[in-house]
Amino acid sequence: MSIKVIAFDADDTLWINEPYFRETEAEFCQLMESYLPQHTVVRELLQTEIKNLSLYGYGIKGFILSMIETALTISNKTIDINAVEKIIEYGKALLARPVEVLDGVPEVLAALKENYRLVVATKGDLLDQERKLRNSGVLHFFHHVEIMSDKQEADYRKLLKHLDIAPEQFLMIGNSLKSDVLPVLGIGGNAIHIPYHITWEHEHVDVHIDNPNFRQVEHISDVLPLLYAPSM
Predict the structure, then answer these.
(1) 3-class secondary-structure state, position 21
(2) In the chain, which end has fewer C-beta atoms inside a 10 angstrom radius, N or C?
(3) Cβ density class 31-70: b for 16+ within 10 Å, e for less
(4) pLDDT of residue 70
(5) pLDDT for 232 beyond 60
(6) Chain mean position to CA 207
(7) Whole-angstrom Cα distance, residue 127 to residue 92?
């Protein structure tokens, strides 16, 4: 069966995201360096974020709460209220960042929209992802938007059921092997990986993929020759 639906991850596939988190993380580490070395603060924050995923999910709001919790932990609850206020300000500034669409994205979406149903399939906070989509200038290209609490095989099966397509008719494009590629291949779908130069540590996987439904490209514009080649 030929591909009918192409889904795109949003953060670091359609627009810049992770560098902004890393900048905020650096500010937080500087704020806390009187308690612990910055590299140790990074490790403590990551552990807190991962622990809290089941409670807060993915996104900026959970990140803010995890920074506050980490500050309380490493300061043994002696952190000054002004520092907590500053952490909240970091989070609000992160939420207010302008959306910077990656090079080539509008052109690729415009080309693909002629022949495929396009979908956004992304994790993150609902309000924040909706804001970024509205401000991105690319929302009109998409037939459907799915903001997911997670990206496991069951989540993709649910999406395919909603779209009323078979796995063979579905292609996922994204920057995360863990979230955008492996679960889709696991249910029999197709996936294209576009690595981004910064990836959240929690999304790192060390795996070699040998699957005929998988491709990796350097730039989003590289997907066009693959999709319009007879073998795809």
Answers:
(1) helix
(2) N
(3) bbeebbeeeebbebbbebbeebeeebbbbbbbbbbbbbbb
(4) 97
(5) no
(6) 19
(7) 13
